[in-house]
Amino acid sequence: KTSDEIVTLQHEEGVDGEVTVGAQQYLYKPMSEDGSKVAVLVMNSDDSEVTVDVSFDEIPGFKGGEGVSARCVWGRKDMGVFDGVLDGVVISSHDARFFMFEAKAE
Fold first, then answer.
1. Number of H helices, E strands in the chain
2. What residues form DSSP beta bridges with 99?
3. What span, in angstroms and rounded, lies between the C-alpha atoms of 43 and 22?
4. What is the per-residue pLDDT across 44-54, written as a single tens digit (0 to 9) for each?
């Protein structure tokens, strides 16, 4: 059953304007029930290269803090162990980076 409110929004004319999103977007997927493992896709829709930091405490549900192992999924490369943040991630214009993060076992 479709909500009447959704149908109304679909057919209602809005104010002219662009739909905007941030130049950098993050998508994540929990890979464990206990929050110790997560996949993160970082996208850059800007016209220029950017350098971003991925703060582990900003990933919803992820229990990472210190001692988080990082892997570049597309590059099939272990990147090392990081405390609190994976910093200095360079992303080319209109490109993305795909990571797997895993918190150290307690």
1. 1, 7
2. 40, 72
3. 10
4. 999 999 999 99
